[in-house]
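New to this. Explain the following:
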Amino acid sequence: MMKKLFVAAMTAIALAGCGGSTQNNAQNNSTAQNNAETSQQSDYKFLDAKEKAFDGFTLYWLKDNEGDNKFPFDLFGNVPEDVKKDVNMPDGMPSSISAYLIKTNGKTILFDAGLGPSRNGQLLNELSKINVTPEQIDYVYITHFHGDHIGGMLKADGEKVFTNAEVYVSRLEKESDLGKGEQAVKMFEKYGDKIHVFNFGDKLPEDVLAIDAVGHTPGHTAFQKGNLLIIGDLMHALALQLKYPEYCPNFDGDKEKAIASRKRILDFAKTNGLTICGMHLTVAK
């Protein structure tokens, strides 16, 4: 049974300023990108390795997309020229499609399942690199129901991938239109009574807290375990949205709520010294 946890601190957090402005005198674009991100991230902790030990658990970054991925500014609406110049990434902002895995107390937890076989997702290859088979996954915690997060829940033949896993999904997400979408419905059918519904503030197995991050989708969820914060799709382009959280990609469903969640959760992470990782944030090569 999940234990309800009251999280008053999350609602009391006020908006705080982001990192200082980017200064870049480098000659090449690669150095420009590194300098821009380093300047903006100075007040925050972001995952900086593909494998990282925390107190009582180990986290693994699983890169689901092939090659490199960049988001253009026009994905974020009418970004002013002075903001583009400040961000200083004219060729696009680095991004990724990611999942994360935690090993703790003899249990294995997967956060999201990536694109899946129909979109050439690399999740199973990434799992094999760390000697984990799909059958060894004990829990799958899903941030939301977009296809690049639940596509990997089913095989090409429609059967479930994680045959022994208990799957946890947000009640608001399940009850939304996304919960009635084809991929979600098929996932519910195949996993059956392995699907468990949580509310924001619930403590999930292995001491993982489900945090309200609504806006990107109706039930979008961030997860906290100890000093780690998995923010799902709270940000799609770190270089832009960390300093300018008011800019939303066109696929944020409720932009006003997405902005509020982004500001609140980023400030919560900064205030509490949490290490941040997200499904569209790059980590290490």
Observations:
- The first helix runs from residue 8 to 11.
- The mean pLDDT is 88.
- The longest strand covers residues 57-63.
- DSSP finds nine helices and 16 strands in the chain.
